[in-house]
Amino acid sequence: MDTDAPELHPLLSFLEHETEPMIVLDPDYRILAANTAYRRQFGSADRAHLGEKCYRVSHGYAVPCDQVGEHCPMKRAAESLGPDRVLHIHHTPRGPEHVDVELRPILDRRGGILAYVERLSTVRSATPRASGDRLVGRSAAFNAALEALQRVAPSTLPVLLLGESGTGKELFARAVHEASPRAQGPFVVVDCSGLTETLFESELFGYEKGAFTGATTRKQGLVETAAGGTLFLDEMGDVPLAMQVKLLRLIETGTFRRVGSVETRQADFRLVAATHKPLAQMVAEGRFRQDLYYRISAFPIHLPALRERREDIPLLAETFLRRGGGGRPVQLTPQALQRLQAHDWPGNLRELRNVLDRARLLADDGVIRPEHLPAGLGEARAFAPDARVATGPVTARWQPAELRRLATTFPGTRRELAAHLGWSERTLYRRLKALGL
């Protein structure tokens, strides 16, 4: 590591022995030094980007992140003189990746900022590219949920996943588990929907032989099965009121009894719960216990509906087609993709996957066209003159490569492109200027 600031020499020597990628930045965004882990993961043996601007290296921007509508940790750290943390999508030798960035200012004797130390951790559970086995997305709405997941996963806090049916709550729950210290333990799913009170109790806590008619052997419950790992209670809003009392006792005391037993057993699990129901409203109406609600909602995470992350649809479509193709390549025409992005997707990811599975069977030549999609899907919005690829605040978070491609291929004027993206012309001009266009 190399820099001209003698005050930083002890720090640089220390960082070199850190196993996580770390860099030192000056207040003008220049990379002063990079440890071996950073060179290995984000640079190369002969090029660690020393002297280059961090926003150009990480994102391909010509200006700092906050000037293109993103969260810049250096700006926040400079204002607070304290650490700041954000999840970004970074360019790496392997392509774009989600990276958890933590930046801390280094102060001189007079309290001024001498430099910044940035620690970068690649998020293994998600990817901004099509993937067969990870969470997929790159929109602002998706990244916000992923950032919350990264913050809570290392802790022991209960997590409550909120979102419409089909938004991927079980996948997020598994990602919480895999990013936690309990990752080597079991991940046990309990589907709370449709279970009667008696069945719910016996499934959760287990039972002794002879506890009831048909109990011919002792059975271990799912709470015991989850020992050392994570217990995922899916559709928590469907838990019967009478069982909510016993569930509250389990969470508060960490103990339980099998059905038909007087022996108290110790539980050892991390709780993740999920529901598509409005639990706060159910509490107000007396349909869900208030004390249980406060116990499970220590860290709520909202999972966005698919219509809140429309710019992820091409990526998700490619992912689903790749996962279920059986080795047969299938692609979408631009017109078919436009229909997909125009639909509101009340069934979310589950509906998108089903639509693509059906279209794949109809596309004999491996090309999915609008006629292979359900009749009327996305038609009204796909051909409206002011139709937009995305709606809401997520439109501000187009990735540089996508925006550059769109800017060079869009057939209309800049004004029409701005309307297409849901931006003002001034915002579009600023974004394109940052990309050097």
From TrEMBL:
Any one Gene Ontology molecular-function term assigned to this protein's record: ATP binding
Electron transport among keywords: no
Family matches, as Gene3D superfamilies: 1.10.8.60, P-loop containing nucleotide triphosphate hydrolases (3.40.50.300), PAS domain (3.30.450.20)
Domain Sigma-54 factor interaction: 135-361
SUPFAM superfamilies listed in its UniProt record: Homeodomain-like, P-loop containing nucleoside triphosphate hydrolases, PYP-like sensor domain (PAS domain)
Gene Ontology terms describing biological process: regulation of DNA-templated transcription
Annotated InterPro entries: AAA+_ATPase, AAA_lid_NorR, Homeodomain-like_sf, P-loop_NTPase, PAS-like_dom_sf, PAS_4, Sigma_54_int, Sigma_54_int_dom_ATP-bd_1
Keywords in alphabetical order: ATP-binding, DNA-binding, Nucleotide-binding, Transcription, Transcription regulation
Highest taxon of source: Bacteria
One family name in Pfam for this protein: PAS_4
SMART domains hit by this protein: AAA
Stated name of the protein: Fis family sigma54 specific transcriptional regulator
